[in-house]
Automatic annotation (TrEMBL), chain A:
Topology term for the membrane: Multi-pass membrane protein
Family that this chain belongs to: Belongs to the binding-protein-dependent transport system permease family.
Transmembrane segments: 12-32, 75-96, 108-128, 159-183, 204-227, 264-286
GO biological process: transmembrane transport
UniProt keyword annotation of Oxidoreductase present: no
Organism: Qingshengfaniella alkalisoli
Stated name of the protein: Sugar ABC transporter permease
One GO location term (cellular component): plasma membrane
Keyword Kinase attached: no
Keywords: Cell membrane, Membrane, Transmembrane, Transmembrane helix, Transport
Source organism phylogeny: Bacteria, Pseudomonadati, Pseudomonadota, Alphaproteobacteria, Rhodobacterales
Ranges of residues in domain ABC transmembrane type-1: 71-285
UniProtKB/TrEMBL annotation, chain B:
Family per similarity comment: Belongs to the binding-protein-dependent transport system permease family.
Record-linked InterPro entries: BP-dep_ABC_trans_perm, MetI-like, MetI-like_sf
SUPFAM superfamilies attached to this UniProt entry: MetI-like
Span of the signal peptide: none
Gene3D superfamilies, sorted: MetI-like
Membrane topology per record: Multi-pass membrane protein
Protein name in UniProt: Carbohydrate ABC transporter permease
Upper lineage: Bacteria, Pseudomonadati, Pseudomonadota, Alphaproteobacteria, Rhodobacterales
Location within or outside the cell: Cell membrane
Protein keywords: Cell membrane, Membrane, Transmembrane, Transmembrane helix, Transport
CDD domains, per the entry: TM_PBP2 (cd06261)
Species name: Qingshengfaniella alkalisoli
Domain (ABC transmembrane type-1) ranges: 72-262
A single BP term in Gene Ontology: transmembrane transport
GO CC, alphabetical: plasma membrane
Length: 294, 277
């Protein structure tokens, strides 16, 4: 009897251990290693030179002009992309929640950008923005919005904006799908009751729809902020951060430092700094999800 | 705001038309890429992309001269490998989370959620160092391990939510009938969450297939996945847009098709947590 009881208390841990051990080995140890590397002067082509320098890399980062440029771009990029995705996603979700014959088709097609590899997305938009043959210039010239072809990605003034448009395109279906799920969880009887009371469409939206989807809105904004902040592959492929530093973001800068300059110590310090900055958002998210887990 | 019938004229104006515009915005770039990929290279710069006189020239060149077949094969091995690792490690873990209460459960679950939130860039460097020490750089295994950093925690979360949907009374009944715990998992829970396992597996496949930064950093000459191969086209062939867009279409195809096949189940799995939260 004791044997089974012991077995019962050990079993959950036994079933968890493979996943936990592997995760420790391939996620937590590497994370610690990044933190450790960030305290060292570690350049890959000088492999024997692994000098402990304490917080020097961090101090250097805070005095590094490119760090601040990258941070500014990260803030702009998240601050514009997320609201744009949210707004477009909300409009799309409200439309998809209406009764029209081709709704299932529209709902299936809208999420295609989600399934595309970011490299393909980047490539596709580089082609669209191409200064000589790109369809963006063609389109805007015909509409009379611009007078001559603009090299969207090669001009420091337009490059970040061009990338933000691409990222908005890539991510708004996520919001549309999440919000749609939220809309469908609102009982229809609420609207029926409101109509009987003579509430206008606008008042129904304000008093029933918005409160009904507020949970989804907050969760998806938090989740998406973390994802958008973390992903830099689209930017890396589209511009590599250029021209100059005009499309540098923090994770991209960390990656470029490590990959191109092979400066793993400094790259790690940048990655750690970026992670610390992101922790605030993660904490808010966890607090919400923590409630849901219980 | 709710689903109700609008008069046809109004509906066309305030629903169908805006929806169509949004779809043009969503699918336009994709279509444009496809049209470019079937346009003859010489015509591309004189007349622009056009579906008239479509040719699969770019696609045949992709496989004959660029060797896209090998890249597809590499991606296939890496993605399938990640699915196997991700699912096999997460199913028992998810069962444990879903069915038992034990000390440290909440913290452990939050750990797995937390991993999804951490910047990938934090892991790339140490994984590179690790693979170099182990002599695994430029192997399929290195990419499978790296992709598992994302796949395992995600997969655990998906599987827990699917398993929570299966009543506990079912495995209890099986155990009263003489099944062991693991027997109940194998005979009752696994078959019932089969669709969930398939959806999770497909999602892991898609993310591994689309993954680029690990593939770029840990791959090389021997193992070059399709995303890296597509990107290489940009550098090596200056303005061969026909070839590049064809590469993009080929690279995006498997994940897109799979996604469209299982999107309903995938989306319900992904949105469940958020809607409840």
């Amino acid at each position: 009897m004791t044997g089974t009881r012991l077995g019962r208390s050990v079993l959950p841990y036994a079933m968890l251990s493979p996943a936990v051990i592997v995760t420790l080995a391939i996620v937590f140890l590497p994370m610690l290693q990044t933190a450790w590397m960030s305290l060292h002067d570690y350049v890959l082509f000088r492999p024997n030179d692994f000098t402990f320098v304490g917080l020097d890399n961090f101090i250097a980062a805070l005095q590094d002009e490119v760090f601040w440029i990258s941070l500014k771009h990260t803030v702009i990029w998240i601050g514009v992309t997320i609201p744009a995705q949210l707004l477009l996603g909300l409009v799309t979700a409200l439309l998809l929640n209406q009764n029209f014959p081709w709704r299932p088709v529209a709902r299936a097609l809208i999420i295609i950008p989600w399934a595309l590899p970011s490299v393909v997305i980047a490539l596709m938009w580089v082609w669209i923005y191409d200064s000589n043959y790109g369809v963006m210039n063609d389109f805007m010239l015909r509409l009379g919005l611009i007078e001559q072809a603009v090299p969207w990605l090669a001009d420091p003034k337009t490059a970040l904006g061009a990338i933000i448009l691409t990222l908005t395109w890539q991510g708004f279906p996520f919001f549309a799908v999440m919000i749609l799920a939220g809309l469908q969880s609102i009982p229809r009887s609420y609207y029926e009751a409101a109509s009987i009371d003579g509430a206008s469409t606008w008042r129904q939206f304000w008093h029933i729809t918005l409160p009904g989807i507020s949970g989804v809105l907050v969760t998806s904004v938090l989740l998406r902020t973390i994802w958008v902040a973390n992903s830099f592959d689209v930017i890396f492929v589209m511009t590599g951060g250029g021209p100059g530093y005009s499309t540098y973001t923090l994770p991209l800068y960390a990656f470029v430092k490590a990959r191109t300059n092979l400066d793993f110590g400094y790259g790690s310090a940048l990655a750690v700094l970026f992670t610390l900055l992101l922790m605030g958002v993660v904490m808010v998210y966890l607090r919400r999800t923590g409630k849901a887990v219980q | 705001m709710a689903l109700r019938k609008l008069p046809l004229g109004r509906r066309l104006l305030i629903v169908d038309l805006p929806m169509a515009l949004i779809l043009v915005f969503t699918l336009g770039p994709y279509l444009w890429m496809f049209i470019t990929s079937v346009t003859d290279e010489s015509k591309l710069f004189t007349e622009g992309p056009s579906i008239i006189g479509a040719t699969i020239d770019n696609y045949t060149r992709l496989f004959r001269t660029v060797g896209f077949g090998d890249n597809l094969f590499d991606s296939l091995i890496v993605s399938c490998g990640t699915v196997v690792v991700g699912l096999s490690l997460s199913i028992t873990a998810a069962y444990s989370f879903s069915r038992f209460s034990f000390r440290g459960k909440k913290i452990l679950m939050l750990q797995f959620l937390l991993i999804n939130m951490f910047p990938l860039v934090l892991l790339i460097l140490p994984l590179f160092v690790l693979m170099r020490v182990l002599g695994l750089l430029d192997t399929h295994l290195a990419l499978i391990i790296a992709n598992s950093t994302v796949a395992i925690p995600f997969s655990i979360w998906m599987m827990v939510s699917y398993m929570n949907g299966i009543p506990k009374s079912l495995d209890e009944a099986a155990m009263t009938d003489g099944c062991t715990r693991l027997g109940a998992l194998r005979r009752v829970v696994l078959p019932l969450c089969g669709p969930g396992i398939v959806a999770t597996g497909i999602y892991i496949f898609i993310t591994s297939w689309n993954e680029y930064l690990y593939a770029l950093t840990l791959g090389g000459r021997n193992v070059r996945t399709i995303t890296v191969a597509v990107q290489t086209l940009i550098g090596e062939y200056e303005v061969q847009w026909g070839l590049m867009t064809a590469g993009g279409i080929v690279g995006a195809m498997p994940a897109t098709v799979l996604f469209l096949l299982v999107q309903k189940r995938l989306i319900s799995g992904l949105t469940q947590g958020a809607v409840k939260g």
